[in-house]
Structures are given as structure tokens and as C-alpha cells.
């Protein structure tokens, strides 16, 4: 396949709260556009604007953990004159080998992030995605997805505390700069961030024990920067890559295209 024939991919990450999209062309990724997953009008406008800007040849691919939002995306793509959305795990093969008994039920966003992280690092790695849900997954030295852990994200945890208690307020998420929570709001934020950071530390240590060496750690997701803080001060995380899942979506498309060409 000639290099000039490789299409640019409008890659979409259809999540629980937002849809993220960007044009991926090789290592180049355009600015990420974020729209609410439940706003069909905003999705339609974003898809049309993005699709019209991408030069030919081009393709449209997505991973999804939200069936209703994916339906919005597919209708928007059709209205924009784009081809049918190539969905990872449905139209495109899963992009990474796994040791799991049922890889087809694993969130494809996790698998896309994992393959992009391993491609970037070339070694055993942990992928920590701090979104609506937090996923902390491990890829071994051979590039095989081992699985990981899932727990509620910062915003979801904050909402649960407010909704299921009589007195705890809803808090706006911001990284604490204090050691001691001086009031209820500060105490909630201190607890939420300590939980996320502590889980990351404990899980990386567990994965390192299983691998017999320390893996590299790469973080992504909307809350990654807040949880990790300054990379220069982190002894655990080597990189924060906001567009990691989108890179993995494009890789899933390119892998499938290469396989078709080989056949």
C-alpha cells in the first residue's frame, strides 16, 4: 500500500459523558473536539465540520461504550455524507491481543488506549484512564493486554456522595492543595484525589509484582492532569497523553486496512 493512499482517520471516542473526535494522520493528531454524548445536535455539527475539513482519502472510525451516543454519531455521519462509521469490535477487529477469556466484552476504549500506549512506549506499560469511570490496565512486554481494574471517576464519586448522603454537598472537582481538609468541601476533595492516586499506586505495584519489573505508566482521560499533577514531580507516571484512545482507534482502522491489503 503506497503511503499516499493511506487515509486520514476521523477517530471518535464515544464515552459515557462526552464524545471526543480528532483527525489522525500517521503520528499527527488534530485538536481534539469534545461534545456531550447526549447532545445529538452538537454531535451532528461537530461531525460535519470535522469531516468537511479532512482531505481525501479519509475514513471514519470509532470506539464506543455508549450505544445511544453511538447511534447519534452514526446518524450524524450519514447526514454529513460520511461513510458508515467503522466501529472497533463490531466492524474492525480488536486492535490488541489479550489473555482474557471474553475480550469481546471489554470496553474497546480500554483496548484502543492500550494498543496506542504500547505502540508509543514499546514496553510493558500501565494505562490509567481517568474519565467518568477510571480504568487502570496493564500490557505486558509482548504487547498483550492483561486486563486491569475499573472504579468510579472523580465526578461520579462526588455525585454519589452528594446523592446518597443527607448533608454532603455537591463539589466542583479541583485538585486539593491542602494536606488537611479544613471544611466538608475540602475533605471530600482530599478524599477523592487520595483514593484515585492511592488506587493507581497500589495497582501499579501489583502489576509490577506480576510482571517482575516496574512497567512504564501513561495516563489519559479528562481528569488525568488533575490526578497526576506535575509530571516532573511524579515518581510514578511517565506521560499524560490526552488523545491516547483516538490514536488507538486510528491504529485499529489501519491494522484492519493493512490486513485487507495483505489478503
Question: Can you give me a brief rundown of this structure?
Answer:
The strands form two sheets. Strands 1, 2, 3, 4, 5 and 6 form a six-stranded mixed beta sheet that branches. The chain has a five-stranded mixed beta sheet with strand order 9-8-7-10-11, with helices on both faces. Strand 7 and strand 8 form a beta hairpin. It contains seven helices and eleven strands.
Summed over residues and divided by their number, the pLDDT gives a mean of: 95
Number of strands: 11
Radius of gyration: 19 Å
| Rough outline | globular
Label the structural class: alpha/beta
Number of helices: 7
> In percent terms, what proportion of residues is strand?
15-25%
- Give the uncertain stretches in residue-range form: none
Estimated helix fraction = 25-40%
Helix-strand topology string: EEEEHEHEHEEEHHEHEH
For the biggest sheet, the summary is: 6 strands, mixed
CA(first)-CA(last) distance: 12 Å
In words, what does this structure look like?
- The protein is an alpha/beta fold.
- It has 7 helices and 11 strands.
- It has helices spanning about 40-55, 65-80, 110-120, 155-165, 185-210, 225-230, 245-260; strands at about 10-15, 20-25, 30, 35, 60-65, 85, 125-130, 135-140, 145-150, 215-220, 240.
- Strands 1, 2, 3, 4, 5 and 6 form a 6-stranded mixed sheet that branches. Strands 9-8-7-10-11 form a 5-stranded mixed sheet, sandwiched between helices.
- β8 and β9 (about 145-150) form a beta hairpin.
- α1 (about 40-55) crosses α2 (about 65-80) and α3 crosses α7.
- The protein is globular.
- The mean pLDDT is about 95.
